[in-house]
Amino acid sequence: MKEASFADADAVFSYSKYVILGIPLDVSGTHRRGTGKTPKAIRQESYNFETFIYDLGIDLDDVPIHDMGDLPIDNPRFDVFDAVGKIVAAGKVPILMGGEHSITPYAVEVFSDVSVLVFDAHLDYRDEYEGDKNSHACATRRIDEAISPEKVLPVGVRSISKEEYDDAKIHGLEYITADQVRKIGTKKLIKLIDEMMPGKIYVSIDMDGIDPSYAPGVGTPEPYGLDPQVIKDVIRHLAPRIVGMDVVEVCPPYDNGNTASLAAKLIRDFIGAKEASEK
Ligand code: MN
Ligand code: MN
Question: Does the pLDDT of residue 7 top 70, yes or no?
């Protein structure tokens, strides 16, 4: 069945430039469970789109993309680090489909000298959640420990506990709220990101960063979110500097299909933009 791999991902690993990997981790979901079914849902939706991206002049059919399938997970930290490490060591760009947000810190550890741009409704800055330091509610905290607070930028934030609010101040973690994005607009947002993150960038898209009207199928929906157009524009601008990306927290049991579809589109758009920037 063709939906077994992401649309247009028909290159073998050795000849590919972009490697798609499903990481169906679903252990710490706190509100709605179901992220374990996500990679399959995103792959299915990926067939809905034209291979040609008209406003980039790129046909994804001509781009060497490989889909590794889903990662068997025994020890999440080791397995994700090992798999992403092998992709990066082979000189390819990893594109991960979660699974819950806890996969991002493990993936980021592979890169040296990278800044991490996170789209998320939540600050994810708890030191631990329900006794679990690797909970998805702690993703940004673990990322900033893996690199440093100055190199992590959450965007689209609109849910912060008092503890997270205080800790972000103490640690010097800056973030841009969804309200601020609406106020300053995409152009200014891009300028800010360019100033704060001048080098290589890893992008982590927690789909709940997007407004629930566009992305209803997430584990922890939060109103007043980002317009997906903002994320598209930011990714298109940053694409030449993006060395890895993940799309996490799509929750198929609560989705009407639009969230998985948007996740697939963002992945296709990123590949198209990076490819266009190298022509
Ligand atoms: Mn979130
Ligand atoms: Mn998150």
Answer: yes
Q: Is residue 7 part of a domain?
A: no
Residue 4 within a domain? no
Number of domains in the chain: 1
- What pLDDT is attached to residue 210? 98
What span, in angstroms and rounded, lies between the C-alpha atoms of 24 and 105?
15
Residue 127 lies in a domain: yes
Cα of 207 vs centre of ligand 1, distance in Å, is 7
In a domain, 156, yes or no: yes
For the stretch 208-224, pLDDT in tens is 999 999 999 998 999 99
- Please tell me the distance between residue 80's alpha carbon and the centre of ligand 1 in angstroms: 20
C-alpha 81 – ligand 2 centre gap (Å): 19
Query: Structure tokens of 201?
Result: 């960038």
Ligand 1 midpoint to CA 72 (Å): 24
Which ligand has its closest atom nearest to the C-alpha of 124?
2
The domain that holds 65 is classified in CATH as 3.40.800.10
C-beta of residue 208 within 8 angstroms of C-beta of residue 254: no
Half-sphere exposure of 65 (CA within 13 A, CB side): 24
Ligand that lies nearest to the alpha carbon of residue 215, given by its number in the listed order: 1
